Amino acid sequence: MAKLVMITGASAGLGEQLAYVFARQKMRLLLLGRNRERLQQVARQATKLTAAPVSILVGDLLDDNGQQAWRQCVAKCGVPDILVNNAALSGFGAVNDLSLAKAQTVLQLNALVPLRLSQLFIQAHQRDERPSYLINIASAGAELALPYAAFHSASKAALLGFARGSQAELQATQINLMTVLPSLMATGHFKQATLPYLKSNRMLVKLMTSIQLAPEKIAKKIVSSSLQGRQILRLPQGYQWVARLNCLAPSLVRKIIDLPYQTR
Ligand SMILES: NC(=O)c1ccc[n+]([C@@H]2O[C@H](COP(=O)([O-])OP(=O)(O)OC[C@H]3O[C@@H](n4cnc5c(N)ncnc54)[C@H](OP(=O)(O)O)[C@@H]3O)[C@@H](O)[C@H]2O)c1
């Protein structure tokens, strides 16, 4: 039977593009999100790419850290062979400006929900003899935190910590965990989440706008890398070099990263 893929946050952005890539691989899909209409649109589009079933699950992951979504997935379609923890909030803003409620939501949706779902996935596949794939979408900000994104970076760093902390346990299983660290993607958040914090310089804004990654390309790379058993995926290629330089000269990299942003 075709592999079952569960994708959280599949109604837009990267999650939507991941749905299309998995559909092209003829896998069964379960797409999660709160917006029923958008999910139905994505499901209709994905159905055109595959003969395998495409289902949707409408719900808010914040209600119970995704546990109900997991139970519903298992009851409706079975235990997923591939889980993509993609749903997240940007949660950008100065530390002083972010309310406790917003900070809590960011930490819950971006860290607690994917980690609880990861735990359920690992428990379900612990003794399997065939491979399964857990894909956690973090962010480059998990290791190279951006200014005005402290809570966001903290939430994404939790996924990296989980990957490192579970590595020894997972070695004894057939579970492949890949943590993805993409830099800025063109999913429509730039104007609201990044632009207000940049220095007002037209060239700089143009440069930052142009470096946004296409989610279609990122989705393809994520799927192929995961199925090859990769553990950490940094995107784009250039960021891999920045991450290496960061190990050698962290203060220099910090200065470069902070450069385009306003200082308050
Ligand atoms: N965009 C970037 O520049 C960037 C950079 C690095 C990493 N990332 C990471 O990449 C992933 C995808 O980012 P994106 O920009 O594609 O995100 P996006 O366009 O904002 O989409 C987020 C998805 O999450 C769902 N979602 C949000 N809150 C939810 C909730 N409470 N319960 C269930 N679903 C919920 C949304 O669907 P509904 O509204 O239908 O619920 C939507 O499908 C995220 O993990 C993000 O942190 C993004």
UniProtKB/TrEMBL annotation:
EC numbers, comma separated: 1.-.-.-
Family designation: Belongs to the short-chain dehydrogenases/reductases (SDR) family.
Signal peptide: none
Domain of life (superkingdom): Bacteria
Keywords of the record: Oxidoreductase
Alphabetical list of InterPro entries matching this protein: NAD(P)-bd_dom_sf, SDR_fam
Keyword Oxidoreductase: yes
Pfam families: adh_short (PF00106)
Gene Ontology molecular functions: oxidoreductase activity
Name listed for the protein in its UniProt record: SDR family NAD(P)-dependent oxidoreductase
Stretches that traverse the bilayer: none
